[in-house]
């Protein structure tokens, strides 16, 4: 593995872990709950309508709200880092093919 690939994988994995909570907050999954008039509020309304009035435990909306309120669990952080690292590797590989 060359230096560019190592840098890209490390940067992408770290960036994904740092930016995941920022992204959750930006769409409305906050520590104080789901922000009014946000993307998260729209998701919650759709989920509640689909399930007959409430958001089901374990649903996407429930999991994202939990992460927005309490932060990412260790296992979730590992998955986010892994996905970020994979994106970094793909980016470095594509860059190597172009250059």
Quickly list its features.
Interferon alpha-inducible protein 27-like protein 2A; 99 residues; two-stranded antiparallel sheet; mainly alpha; 4 helices; IFI6/IFI27-like_sf
In short:
It is built from 4 helices and 2 strands. The protein has helices at 3-27, 39-50, 60-70, 74-98; strands at 29-30, 33-34. The longest helix is centred in the first third of the chain and has 25 residues, at 3-27.
Q: What does it look like?
A:
- The chain is built from 4 helices and 2 strands; from the N terminus they run αββααα.
- A hairpin with a 2-residue loop joins strand 1 and strand 2.
- Helix 1 crosses helix 4.
- It is elongated and about 55 Å long.
- The two termini are 16 Å apart.
- The model has no long low-confidence stretch (mean pLDDT 89).
- One of its GO terms (biological process) is release of cytochrome c from mitochondria.
- It is a multi-pass membrane protein.
- This is Interferon alpha-inducible protein 27-like protein 2A.
- Keywords: Membrane, Transmembrane, Transmembrane helix.
Q: Could you tell me the strand content as a percent range?
A: under 5%
Mean pLDDT: 89
Total tally of structural domains: 1
- List the secondary-structure elements in sequence, H or E: HEEHHH
What's the total number of strands? Answer: 2
Briefly note the structural class of the backbone: mainly alpha
Q: Give the oligomeric state.
A: single chain
The residue fraction in helices comes out at over 70%
Q: Uncertain spans, ≥5 residues at pLDDT below 50?
A: none
* Count of runs of 4 or more consecutive helical residues: 4
What is the makeup of the main sheet?
Answer: 2 strands, antiparallel
- Overall shape: it is elongated
Strand order of the largest sheet: 1-2
């Amino acid at each position: 593995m060359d230096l560019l690939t190592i840098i890209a994988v490390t940067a992408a994995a770290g960036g994904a872990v740092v930016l995941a909570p920022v992204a959750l907050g930006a769409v409305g999954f906050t520590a104080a709950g789901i922000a009014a008039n946000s993307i998260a509020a729209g998701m919650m309304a759709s989920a509640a309508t689909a399930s007959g009035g409430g958001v089901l435990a374990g649903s996407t909306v429930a999991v994202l709200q939990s992460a927005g309120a309490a932060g990412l669990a260790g296992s979730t952080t590992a998955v986010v880092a892994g996905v970020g690292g994979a994106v970094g590797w793909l980016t470095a590989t594509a860059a190597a093919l172009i250059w």
